Amino acid sequence: GENVEQHPSTLSVQEGDSAVIKCTYSDSASNYFPWYKQELGKGPQLIIDIRSNVGEKKDQRIAVTLNKTAKHFSLHITETQPEDSAVYFCAASTSRGGSYIPTFGRGTSLIVHP
Amino acid sequence: EPEVTQTPSHQVTQMGQEVILRCVPISNHLYFYWYRQILGQKVEFLVSFYNNEISEKSEIFDDQFSVERPDGSNFTLKIRSTKLEDSAMYFCASSHTSGGYNEQFFGPGTRLTVL
Fold this sequence. Notes:
Mean pLDDT of chain B: 92
Number of helices of chain B: 0
Strand content of chain B: over 45%
Largest sheet of chain A: 6 strands, mixed
Number of strands of chain A: 11
Number of strands of chain B: 11
Oligomer: heterodimer
Mean pLDDT of chain A: 93
Order of helices and strands of chain A: EEEEEEEEEEE
Low-confidence stretches of chain B: none
Distance between the termini of chain A: 41 Å
Distance between the termini of chain B: 37 Å
Structural class of chain A: mainly beta
Number of helices of chain A: 0
Helix content of chain A: under 10%
Order of helices and strands of chain B: EEEEEEEEEEE
Strand content of chain A: over 45%
């Protein structure tokens, strides 16, 4: 089955700095890579995703890159703000039973210091 | 904005007891899911449910677990005889479409503590 590794487990940055979270996956059949943000007391919320036919995607201050050959994908947050502080999960997924079931990474706790 | 809700937020039970975790998915969604997260570990898929039947389940989802959509709005996860290792955060999720890249909307979770 799929295995997703995520690093770092904790990331502490100053407000305005950039933050980068990296993930690797094992199953070459995975073709959809969502990223989730989980705030305290809430469930994971999709913030951005990338499909296997795309190498990079950007949405305002966040961007994701995907290297299918190396089975790496990354989340980049620029100009971090204190409200970006949360746990971020990467995931890799393939279609199972008609929908895409994500295999999650362990999560990165991002702390943005004002 | 529509959201997935879960009750209770925290459930404490004795080992061997049955528990039912409840979820109300977003009303026009067709696919429903349960995940769990043991403290400090990854979020793990348990089961997906579509058209009133299980469409996919993981190896974690053994005979102790069952799911049901009893009334067209609730989606429940039952654990028949809880074990200490069932202690975890359980997340319900739902998605709208039956194919393609479906965004799954997660509820806030139920923290289950088995004593």
